[in-house]
Amino acid sequence: PVTLATLAAIGPKLVYIHSQHANAGLSDEAEQLHVVDVFSGALAQLEDYRRDFRRFAALRRDIDRVKERNAKNRENEEFLRFQCGQLDALKPKKGELTEIEKRYEVLSDADEIKQRLASLASLFGSGDRGMLGDVSEARGIVDKIDFSLFGRDVEGQDIPARMEVMETEIRDIADAIDDMYSGLDTNPAALERLSSRMQAYYAAVKHFKVKDADELADLHIKLKQELGELTGDGGELPELERQAREMARVLKEKAAVLTRMRQEGARLLGDEIYAAARTLGLPNLKFEVRVSPAKLTSTGGDRVEFLCAFNRNATLQPVGDTASGGEMSRLMLSLKAVVARRMNMPTIVFDEVDTGVSGEIAEQMGLMMRRMGDDIQVMAITHLPQVAAQGVEHFKVYKRDEGDRTVTHV
Questions:
Q1: Considering only CA atoms, which of 307, 305, 327 is closest in space to residue 316?
Q2: Which of 45, 217, 237, 381 could covalently link to 92 via disulfide, CB atoms 3.0 to 4.6 Å apart?
Q3: Half-sphere exposure of residue 356: CA atoms within 13 angstroms, side-chain side
Q4: Residue 290 carries which DSSP code?
């Protein structure tokens, strides 16, 4: 058991049903093109072409979107230039504000920090109160003691090495403190510059209504890009147009391949339909499958027409304009007989395809359907004994009144 949607999706790939009204499809240009593609073996090439056409269509939509945006921007070009000019003056960079805030915090307390660093330098230095001087003096004393006298197990024998490490570490700390002290700028002008830059960032973030300074940098790039589109000095549009030109070239090449396949397939299809239809009582039939150039669409660059004439000296006309009901039925059966062996279709059902014919022609149609049955399963619903006589199996469908209802039996 499956859902109706699943059946609807899979069913047409398994069974083709030719109803009494399907003859009208013979005059539909889209159906005609599909028949030619099936007969030409061009379905794989067509799908490959369609994939590229969808990409090309997406590119054209992107180009239209950018052009529409540019047109809108031109209306506001003066304002756009003003905004871009403001950000040009600021020159925002990602991460800069965070760094400025850190430096500002340090410089705000520079005097106090410098005083503390000076105290540390005094404590760690080599002066009278400095640890480095005391440790150096202690090392001098340690070097005069022979710790081996205390035996191998005495931990004190490592004191000279440990004192050396201690002196090196204290010296490194003292040097680092001196570097920090020297590098600390207490110039009020430097603090003022940082404050001014920081406030400019804050004002711009508020003015341009962005989340933070990093988004301000992104906005600057975007505005310059949009302005570049307007002035023609680069941006998104030229690259999209280049891609579209390249894709158009590829499409034309692939469409040309489709055209050659269709022209060859159309010639063979026309010959085979002509040969098949003449056996169904159409001795004066002229049939042509015409492939003519057309604008590139999702199906390629061709227009396909089925043209025919049923009488002597008659000019070729579109199938739908010239065929009667009986002629259309015979032509459609001929078409299905020719195309069926090219389609991967297990079953075809003809629902009164023999409408409008009788006698010997009906017998010929029945024979044609029986020959089709050699390759695929054919089911024919008919009222004509000449057609029914060709069937291998027969099912009689009838209705019978049973009480207050009518029941259909097979």
A1: 307
A2: 217
A3: 17
A4: E
Residue 36's nearest CA partner among 319, 306, 369, 251 is 306
pLDDT in tens, 371-408: 889 888 999 999 899 999 999 999 999 999 999 999 99
Neighbours of 130 (CB within 10 A): 17
Cα–Cα–Cα angle for 159, 162, 164, nearest 5°?
110
State if pTM tops 0.85: no
Task: Please tell me the distance from the alpha carbon of residue 124 to that of residue 184, in angstroms, as a whole number.
Answer: 19
What is the distance between the alpha carbons of residues 338 and 318, in angstroms, rounded to a whole number? 20
d(CA 324, CA 27): 12
Burial zone of 124 (CB within 10 Å; 0-12 exposed, 13-18 middle, 19+ buried): buried
**4 pLDDT higher than 70:** yes
One-letter amino acid of 263: Q
If you search the block for the tokens 């690259």, which residue do you land on? 239
Are the C-beta atoms of residues 251 and 53 closer than 8 Å to each other? yes
Q: Quote the Cα angle for 54-266-345, to 5°.
A: 70
